[in-house]
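Need Conjugation protein's 3D structure for a figure. Predict it.
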Amino acid sequence: MAIYHLCIKIISRGKGKSAVAASAYRSGEKIKNEYDGIVHDFTRKGGIAHTEILLPQNAPEEFSNRSVLWNSVEKIEKSKNAQLAREIALPKELSREKQINLVREYVKENFVKVGMCADIALHDKNDGNPHAHILRTMRPLNEDKTWGAKSKKEYILDENGEKVKLKNGNYNYKTRKINTVDWNE
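Structure prediction for Conjugation protein:
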């Protein structure tokens, strides 16, 4: 009988995490984080059964290299508490080929199809816990293959269509944050 488990986490710089480190660990690779200069070497980690990067059509070809992809994510996010990636772990109790195909199709249909880049790693230490890790980007890609904005600022307007001023100044107006995609809600 299959045991259902789903865990979704945000990889956040504000919590001392790195998308580069997360990808290196899950893929069992050695990747240098260009943001802080730290080299994350997990080449001795066992149990890596399969890794793969799936990209939307408007992603740059070089994003098929996980070092380039996740260093690009680290570079575009300027904030010290930036949300870098979202991780989804899904254990599977199927043959290896079925595990890979199931995860690949799930990722294509739910993430890549709407514009996210996804980094898949299947782990299996032969301990009865085969599972997949999926790291996915939180920013959209523009048609010109550059990173888009996660959100934009929108001015709040009064009944006459004028910007509503804040009480503390002549040139300060009330605003609200509008997400550019519905992935981060």
